[in-house]
Amino acid sequence: MKRIFALWLCVAVMGMLVVTGESALAAQTVDEQPYHFGFKKSKGGELPSIAQEGFMHLIEKQGGIFLGDTAKKEIFLTFDNGYENGYTPKVLDVLKAKKVPAAFFVTGHFVKDQPALMRRMASEGHIIGNHSWSHPDMSTISSTEIRSELDRVRNASAELTGQKEMKYVRPPRGIFSEKALASCREAGYTSVFWSVAYKDWDTNIQQGADYAYQQVIRQLHPGAVILLHSVSKDNTEALASIIDEARKQGYEFKSLDDLKVKHYQ
Asked: Does the keyword Signal apply (predicted)?
């Protein structure tokens, strides 16, 4: 009888150990439908919204970031760095001169190609976030593959900068599923979306610094998470003016580490 009980206990324990990674997520009720992040833009100081996009409850459930504290005039500046186009040094110069913290979401390509810039970001106090190693559609790959993508960036970044902690992730191309968000969360990350953005990533369609300035300033709102792409010449040339005008309007630039209150509209 003791042997039978011991055998049963062994099988039960083994079964529990198997429920990890993919199995753990499978045991939960998670939505595997792919979503492409989008939002209703802020106009005239009104708050932006994701209420009509069909995924608000998933981002909230998985602890993602869309808005900070909408009762405070705080701004969180973030950049996506898929590759280097010659402008990140100037962006860093402006941030240093203006004493503005930022978060840079980097891919494997950027980490491998720009070790000096990676070290500079870290040494100047900016957050380095994870944008995946190969920029895949995370809604189409397994939790194990997602973990591998994230681990490769974190490990390579740590080797360059000495910073072992990496807390924030941005889904490549803004495509995600609840399963992808849950996988990132299990890996210790907070998924960071955005509430201010415009089409700035196409290097063949740059329309001047004033255009970039107007696109960002007209969307400002309390608790804003701004997404800019560092490959944009327009963004680089407009950044100082954007910072100055935002401060003139009473906004304060804060680090993502200071974002304590999350709002979902």
From this structure: yes
Q: At what angle do helices 178-186 and 143-161 cross, to 10 degrees?
A: 40
Any alpha helices (H) in the chain, and if so which ranges?
2-18, 22-27, 56-61, 88-98, 108-113, 115-123, 143-161, 178-186, 209-217, 233-248
Do 49 and 178 meet the contact criterion of CB atoms below 8 Å apart?
A: no
Decide: helix, strand or coil at residue 127: strand
Instruction: Note the pLDDT tens digit of each residue in 138-166.
Output: 999 999 999 999 999 999 999 999 999 99
Contact between residue 65 and residue 223 where contact means Cβ atoms under 8 Å apart: no
End-to-end CA distance of the chain: 59
pTM: 0.89
116 CB neighbour count, 10 Å cutoff: 9
Q: How far apart are CA 170 and CA 132, in angstroms?
A: 8
- Give the start-to-end residue ranges of the domains of the chain: 62-258
Residues acting as catalytic residues: 80, 229
The topology (CATH level 3) of 62-258 is TIM Barrel (3.20.20)
C-alpha closest to that of 225 among 186, 264, 187, 167: 264
Q: Which amino acid is at 35?
A: Y
